[in-house]
Design brief:
This protein has 18 helices and 32 strands. The chain is α+β, with helices and mostly antiparallel strands.
């Protein structure tokens, strides 16, 4: 290191030491203050957080910021104190003295009025058993003990809001009670139950039912509140507990077929779910405590307290960014959602960064995220297919989509398949998909080493041609394919691709060189970027790139590009990405490198003013956040554990599920067209907002102009959205339904818009962001509104001109 570099490094260390609450060596000793506290975290819909230092400072909310209030009051000798939520306002808050976030538990401590209270949220996200990991139940436990030597009368109550069961606060909910043995159980759900109708980003669920259940021996119900019996509390602790659970009924639509939640794979209903969870309350509590202790100990050994705390906060968020479904064989299929960055489902450049958490904890978990994609790519539905697709649609409907990052996504899949094979010691999983895998390798051979102008996973940084980091991914992926070939016994092809990968790596080293670092683009001198994709070269044991290249890269980041909150992704912007930073920190395998790059990430996390679930993108200059929150990609922070082979082997070997028999790709639904959407159809259509009764059968639409579907903008003539904003259309037409098809009518539509469809004046469909032709079920009310013979369909569609695919392209009624 020359004197100038040494001075830069000393300045960086001094800056970090001043910014952190303690010296670098002591940073982990300070209490960990998460930007948002995970409370109930299961999937993209059942996900409740506290965005404050104390549970009583703000109402709890969904990750999308929708209010989802949970409230708890503790009466101490008759005086009420709030310990969760902001209601009732007249009750003062019991002083919260601390919060601890662990992989499966959030523990909040309170003190006052002569007692100490611990409120624990336990989500038994134990990865060795998918039946348990996917179980949508969180336990809340209140433990009270007297601290002043006196005995106190304590009564605990808990109130839940119906907002946990709707997407829009205006939606009507229905409350009820269930008679489950040994439990007092409250149930709430939306009145309309539009199952799987809404798709896209920043949505909450509005179908299925939320359950609150407590042991009947200690609790009773009072409207929407669970009230526990009053008890005398002294020096011995007293506990009360309840369960929060959500039954989606249907979880995911996979190519026209609705899939049950995974916990329902054996025919369970809410009764079996809650009764089983109640019986297992105590043993699961012990298992979670032991799991948390072991994970935190392992992560501390790898990266100290800061790294362990990062992993603890990431753990539940990663799982909760996924939908957990069962296929027709009852095998697990896991579908990540691209929260706050498009709402796509099974996005391959989300699967890639989140995969380390799945890989660490076993082959079944890893296969469960890969199978939905691999079955699609070998089906006749994927057109083209020389490269991997970008995603499978818009969550929760995985009905197919194309590709927009061909080198990125293709490289992702080959690398992950090789990582799975390394974990299992064989490539058996690849066998049914081998022709497609080979096609991908041939594509990267032709197009990947020096990519043309395209996006990478860091699409918010913009496209670029000849990206060096993207090329690195492609070269590693070619080496990964060679490794898979060797495991399959094809030594000739393995040798061919090994030689290609080595030659390409040597070319890469020469062409990317920019003195003390490598470039952003091969033809872009004076630029740079993090080369996080190279980490798989060492993790997979490929040894394609010289260690000196990695040493040079990391020295450059540490000595010349370190800002107050870390190293930016590349020379174009000052944005950092948490998952990639931790991958870059693992490049050399040197603990000093890891600490130097990770500590600023930890600093940003504990000082973030944006109180959101774990942001994976932020400004390195000032730590500012505000987007890309609560995404499953944060599971990428566990990659460091894959760099410890014995540790990886220990955790992966505990996989109890061991599923192998996934169902074949579902056959397309058989339909009979009630009208042909592929041909122009006349509608009465207006772009002027009509009267309130516009969707009713008796409304006079004769003055509306006639128009023919499809309604869309051409890309060339797409209007400037800054000038016109959203475009609304209101459409009406009549159609005939044979009596035999009355109960089998569905809607077939596509478009990047939002739409509301009425049947004979009754709201029947509410949806948006349909990425491919999709079948959408009518709501129960819409189904009931259908009549034999002549019917009226009325549609309000809202089009977003910013999308090249804007517009409700076509609508069709189908009878299966």
């Amino acid at each position: 290191m020359n004197p100038k570099q040494s001075a830069k490094m000393k300045h960086t260390i001094t800056l970090l030491a001043a910014l952190l609450p303690a010296t670098m060596a002591q940073a982990g000793e300070k209490p960990f203050r998460p930007p948002a506290v995970p409370l109930v975290t299961h999937d993209p819909y059942f996900s409740v957080w506290s965005r404050a230092d104390k549970l009583t400072d703000l109402a709890t909310s969904h990750w999308s910021r929708r209010p989802q209030p949970l409230n708890s009051v503790v009466r101490i000798d008759g005086k009420p104190f709030r310990v969760l939520g902001v209601e009732p306002k007249e009750a003062p808050a019991l002083e919260q003295s601390g919060v601890t976030v662990l992989p499966t538990r959030t523990i909040c401590e309170f003190a006052g009025a002569g007692i100490k209270l611990t409120l624990t949220f336990t989500t038994p996200a134990l990865p060795e058993d998918l039946s348990l990991l996917a179980r949508p139940v969180t336990y809340l436990t209140w433990t009270v003990v007297a601290t002043d030597g006196n005995e106190h009368a304590v009564e605990i109550s808990f109130t839940v809001s119906g907002l946990l069961a709707v997407n829009d606060a205006k939606q009507e909910v229905v409350w009820g009670q269930e008679n489950f043995p040994g439990l007092v159980t409250l149930r709430v759900g939306s009145k309309e139950q539009p199952v799987l109708q809404k798709a896209g980003d920043n949505l909450a669920i509005d179908w299925g039912y939320l359950y609150v259940a407590a042991p009947g021996a200690t609790a009773k119900l009072s409207e929407h509140t669970v009230v526990f019996d009053s008890v005398k509390v002294g020096a011995a602790p007293v506990s009360r507990w309840l369960m929060l659970a959500y039954d989606e009924i249907w979880s995911i639509q996979y190519f026209g077929h609705d899939l049950r939640p995974y916990w329902r794979k054996d025919g369970w209903e809410p009764r079996e779910l809650l009764e089983t969870a109640a019986r297992e309350y105590e043993p699961l509590g012990k298992r979670c405590a032991a799991f948390d202790e072991e994970v935190m100990s392992d992560m501390r050994a790898l990266g100290g307290d800061p790294y362990a705390n990062i992993c603890a906060l990431a753990y539940r968020q990663c799982w909760a960014g996924n939908g957990w479904a069962a296929d027709e064989n009852g095998a697990p299929m896991v579908f990540p959602k691209e929260n706050t960055s498009n709402g796509d489902i099974s996005t391959l450049d989300v699967i890639y960064p989140m995969a380390p958490q799945f890989l660490l904890f076993g082959p079944t978990l890893t296969k469960a995220i890969l199978v939905p994609v691999m079955e699609y790519v070998r089906s006749p539905l994927l057109k083209g297919g020389h490269s991997a697709p970008h995603d499978l649609g818009a969550y929760p409907r995985a009905n197919g989509n194309g590709g927009s990052m061909p080198v990125e996504e293709t490289g992702n899949m080959l690398i992950l398949l090789a990582a799975l094979a390394k974990m299992e010691g064989n490539a058996d999983f690849c066998a049914p998909y081998w022709p497609k895998i080979t096609q991908w390798a041939e594509y990267l051979k032709a197009k990947g080493v020096d990519p043309d102008n395209q996006l990478s996973t860091d699409d918010f940084m913009g496209p670029a041609a000849h990206q060096v980091n993207l090329s690195a991914k492609s070269i590693v992926a070619l080496g990964a394919y060679a490794q898979l070939c060797r495991l399959r016994g094809d030594s000739a092809v393995a040798k061919e691709y090994e030689e290609l990968a080595r030659e390409s790596a040597a070319w890469w080293v020469k062409e990317s060189d920019d003195g003390d670092h490598s470039r952003l683009g091969f033809d872009m001198p004076g630029t740079w970027s993090q080369k996080y994709n190279l980490v798989w070269d060492r993790l997979l044991g490929l040894d394609l790139f010289p260690s000196a290249v990695l040493r040079k890269e990391v020295d450059f980041y540490r000595n010349k590009k370190m800002n107050a909150f870390g190293v930016p992704l590349d020379s174009r912007k000052s944005l950092a990405k948490v998952d990639w930073t931790l991958w870059t920190a693992t490049l050399t395998g040197d603990r000093a490198d890891f600490d130097a790059l990770v500590l600023p990430v930890y600093h940003q996390l504990i000082t973030a003013t944006g109180r959101e679930p774990f942001n994976d993108v932020y400004e390195t200059t000032n730590g500012a956040t505000g987007w890309m929150i609560s995404r499953p990609v944060i599971g990428g922070v566990f990659l460091k554990a894959l760099d410890a082979p014995a540790l990886w082997k220990k955790w992966a070997a505990r996989d109890q599920t061991r599923t192998t028999a996934w169902a074949p790709f579902p056959a397309p639904p058989q339909v009979t067209k009630l009208w042909d959407a592929t041909k122009p159809l006349d509608w009465q259509v207006t772009t002027q907002k009509p009267p309130a009764d516009w969707a009713q059968p008796g409304f006079d639409d004769s003055a509306w102009p006639k128009g023919a579907a499809p309604f869309l903008y051409s890309v060339e003539k797409k209007p400037d959205p800054k000038k016109i904003g959203e475009v609304h259309r209101w459409l009406r037409r009549e159609f005939d339904v044979p009596e035999a098809a009355l109960k089998r009518v569905q809607v077939w539509m596509v478009g990047e818009n939002e739409a509301e469809m009425y049947i004979n004046g009754v709201l029947a469909v509410t949806c948006g962001r349909l990425r491919a032709w999709e079948t959408v079920k009518l709501s129960p009310a819409g189904q009931a509104a259908l009549e034999p013979g002549r019917n009226l369909v009325a549609i309000h569609m809202k089009q977003d001109p910013r999308s090249a695919e804007a517009g409700l392209v076509e609508v069709n009624m189908t009878g299966k």
